[in-house]
Amino acid sequence: MSELKLHDLRCFDAVASQGSFQAAAVALNRSHPSVFAAVARLEHVLKLTLLDRSGYRVSLTEAGALFHARARLMLRELDQLHGYADQLASGEETILRVVLGDVCPRPCALRLLGRFFARHNRTRLHLEYETINGPLERLLEGDADLILHRADPSDPRLERIDLCTVEFVPVVAPGFLSLAPGLAITPEQMQPYTQCVIRDTARQPSPDSYFLVEGSQRCSVPDHQMKKELILHRLAWGHLPAWLIAEELKDGRLLAIAGEHLPGRVETVAAIRRRDRSHGPVAEALWQHLRAQPASITRDF
């Protein structure tokens, strides 16, 4: 098998795909005799008859069909390897690491990223989800190229592009409270009820307190979708992003209890990267893509 030649494999693949030596020769921009000789040489090396030449058009033998299926896989992998080498030589990143934070409207962010990576499909998107202080920790520790989350706009280590705002609304399921839902509910009145919170994925949790009612019983979940399910099943109450619960608020499956004493909150979602590190061409292209259409996420609602 040491005599197996890539040229011969490509000629065989072209004949099998095109259905004739002449068509294969045209596709490969080679002469008919050279393609014929290459396939004959391959059959000699393999000691297999790959093509049935007895009919008007050549066709694959049973062994030829089986061999062609494996050969096509190998040729495809080889082409990908060449593309990978070209990418390395050009300086393009092979992987771009993006972290979605719990504040970010996930469906809309995925559509935004999908449009970009459809045009940059040689770079693989490595996407992760982190909560609270997790996204920023990943970015600052060098484990992410870009995060879509909230961040302190005064932090000199960070560069940001504001994308959209997300309203967080305190909600309960009907029948969860023994008191009547209204705008005058106080945190003290909510103390007897279990409050659902998102767990911080950072190794060094944030000292900030997001919506917590002091003295209340708490349960924790990994993300807002699970938090929504718990609230719908009357296991707890909590703050949820308005984009996630629009239908439930509309049809009455959830009730907003925001008011003077128990306010909601508006967060700004931004694309964030570090100022103090260089960014590859694909990462820079993604940054410019986000900068060019800062309303992309909100338009998708």
From TrEMBL:
Q: Which Gene3D superfamilies match?
A: 3.40.190.290, Winged helix-like DNA-binding domain superfamily/Winged helix DNA-binding domain
Q: Which UniProt keywords apply?
A: DNA-binding, Transcription, Transcription regulation
Please state every residue range assigned to the domain named HTH lysR-type: 4-61
Q: Give the matching PROSITE patterns.
A: HTH_LYSR (PS50931)
The answer to whether the entry has keyword Glycoprotein is no
Tell me its family.
Answer: Belongs to the LysR transcriptional regulatory family.
Name used for this protein in its record: LysR family transcriptional regulator
